[in-house]
Write a structure and sequence with these properties.
There is one protein chain. The protein is of the alpha+beta class. It folds into 3 domains: about 220 residues, Alpha-Beta Complex (Fumarylacetoacetate hydrolase, domain 2); about 150 residues, Glucose Oxidase, domain 1; about 45 residues. Helices cover about 25% and strands about 25% of the residues. The protein contains 14 helices and 29 strands. Strand 11 and strand 12 form a beta hairpin. The radius of gyration is 28 Å and the shape is elongated. About 45% of the residues are buried. About 5% of the residues have low confidence. Pfam families: FAA_hydrolase, RraA-like.
């Protein structure tokens, strides 16, 4: 297959010599990022990253932050070298819609080059149609993008920090822009993360002229990156904020990471994997906590669940060292995690203020979820206080579990949300902790808790129930509770324990007979 017939290059009528992309060019995007560059900066993308409209983009296994960026792509006609801004536009033959996809899981290791994060196969869809550059005003182009039919980006080139002519002229003073070269001119506010099953569309309009909608569908890949070959995907709250577009969007996006999307086949199909990554591996066929399952779990003591999990080889599933702030508290819910690191002054200065990880977790917790806080068993400061407890309660959270301290303990208890803690402490968070990240696997009270794990708490403590076996465990526990209640009745009637607890063959037969009567 020649380049002219390769579907990746159809809209360009051949493989471009180079693709140059602008890092940050729209005022709306710069304001969203909180930084405005004094001059444009660039990176290269390989021509092998090109894709036509209606193609699929594969999100590699073990990653979570695949973000789209609707952009206007310029295709060079006449070669340009040392051209002035006044003459620059005459060197553009045509323009089209582009989507500058990026994998933020790899971004930190690229140090701005974006070689791995934006160079993947299919990461630069172009098309479907071209607009003749001679027929349009470069200062009056409109760019729009949709995700699953919802408009998410809408801006014009009037909103550029650097006009298109300036970008062309600037590049031409560094190297020759050759015929067929592509310039990706940056994205406005609204770029965000997409997951398998979602479709992104991008369109450029210039008066009566239009490119039509460039359509790309995200699919889940099965191959992951090899730890022995190079850098592995790794994400933190900084990259999540950059990928989603803002701290608020990142917090809201955490809900989406544990929610269903068309084509994922599973709520956790959007969860990342890979050893060495601070994120977690998906469970195969991990079920959700249905209302029916929640109701059954609410009738089973934690001790009974512990016994059934032990029978299945799971002994390290209790969150040790925590107790209910209010006696009699009980809850059932799914984990929403928050991780603290040991206090360090410089780190707290950069990550402890503003809408930090702690506040994002409490703002994003959903109905029926449990905020689980990793505090390393450090009880020398509070990990939450009454305001955060009120926020979680208002959001419909099922409970809060922390292996650290609770500040304003009496006021927290009065809020009415179950709180399980290692104990009260009057000091503020910054005395012992740095709020670090959310929605990752954490260690709380000596056990690992993944986002989406089922937690049950009562007077005996808190236990983690793996969702994949929750139905089996609760049914067995309910059956055991029924059996134990019958045995207790026999003991109360004066029967000795020998042969009855546990039941021998004769007692088992009697129990089954009465149970089936």
């Amino acid at each position: 297959m020649t380049d002219r017939t390769d579907p990746r290059f159809t809209v360009l009528d051949g493989r471009p010599g180079k693709i140059v992309a602008v890092h940050l060019s729209y005022a709306s995007r710069a304001d969203q990022r909180g930084r405005r560059p004094a001059a444009p900066s660039y990176f290269f993308k390989p021509s092998s990253s090109l894709a036509p409209s209606d193609a699929e983009i594969v999100r590699p296994a073990g990653t979570e932050l695949l973000a789209f960026e609707g952009e206007i792509a310029l295709i060079i006609g006449e070669p340009a070298r040392w051209v002035t801004p006044d003459a620059a536009w005459s060197h553009v033959a045509s323009l089209t819609a582009a989507n500058d996809f990026g994998l933020y899981d790899l971004r930190a290791n690229d140090k701005g080059s974006n070689v791995r994060s934006k160079g993947g196969d299919g990461y630069t869809p172009l098309g479907p149609g071209l607009i003749d550059a001679r027929a349009v005003d470069p200062t009056a182009l409109r760019l729009r993008a949709w995700v699953d039919g919802d408009l998410v980006q809408d801006d014009t080139t009037a909103g550029l920090i650097f006009p298109l002519a300036q970008i062309i002229a600037d590049l031409s003073q560094h190297f020759t822009l050759e015929t067929g070269d592509v310039i990706l001119t940056g994205t406005p506010a609204g770029s965000s993360v997409v997951v398998p099953g979602q479709t992104v569309e991008v369109q450029v309009d210039a008066g009566a002229h239009s490119t039509g909608r460039l359509r790309t569908t995200v699919v889940q890949g099965s191959r992951s990156f090899d730890a022995g070959l190079g850098s592995l995907p790794a994400v933190d709250d900084t990259q999540r904020t950059e990928a989603w577009g803002s701290p608020e969007a990142a917090a809201a996006g955490a809900l989406a990471r544990t929610g269903d999307h068309p084509g994922t086949g599973h709520p956790d199909a959007d969860r990342p994997v890979l050893a060495g990554s601070p994120v977690l591996a998906p469970h195969a066929a991990r079920p959700s906590l249905t209302p029916e399952l929640r109701e059954k779990l609410s009738r089973v003591p934690v001790a009974a669940l512990s016994g059934q999990l032990r029978k299945r080889g799971l002994n390290d599933v209790t969150i040790d060292g925590v107790r209910a702030l209010t006696p009699g508290s009980r809850f059932v819910g799914t984990a929403r995690t928050l991780r603290f690191l040991p206090h360090r002054e410089d780190l707290f200065a950069s990550r402890g203020g503003g809408q930090n990880a702690q506040k994002r977790a409490f703002d994003a917790v959903g109905e029926g979820e449990v905020i689980v806080i990793e505090a390393r068993g450090e009880t020398g400061s509070g990990t939450l206080g009454d305001i955060l407890a009120v926020r979680a309660h208002a959001r419909g959270a099922a409970a809060i579990v922390t292996d650290g301290g609770v500040r304003d303990a009496e006021a927290v208890a009065a809020v009415g949300i179950p709180v399980f803690t290692a104990g009260p402490h009057p000091a503020v968070l910054g005395r012992r902790h740095v709020p670090w990240e959310t929605d990752v696997a954490v260690g709380c009270g000596g056990t690992t808790v993944e986002p989406g794990d089922i937690l049950v708490g009562d007077g005996d403590g808190v236990i983690v129930v793996p969702p994949a076996i929750a139905e089996e465990v609760v049914d067995a526990a309910l059956a055991q509770e029924e059996e134990d209640a019958w045995i207790a009745g026999q003991v109360a009637s004066g029967h000795p324990l020998d042969g009855l607890f546990p039941m021998n063959t004769d007692w088992r037969a009697r129990y089954e007979s009465e149970r089936n009567a």
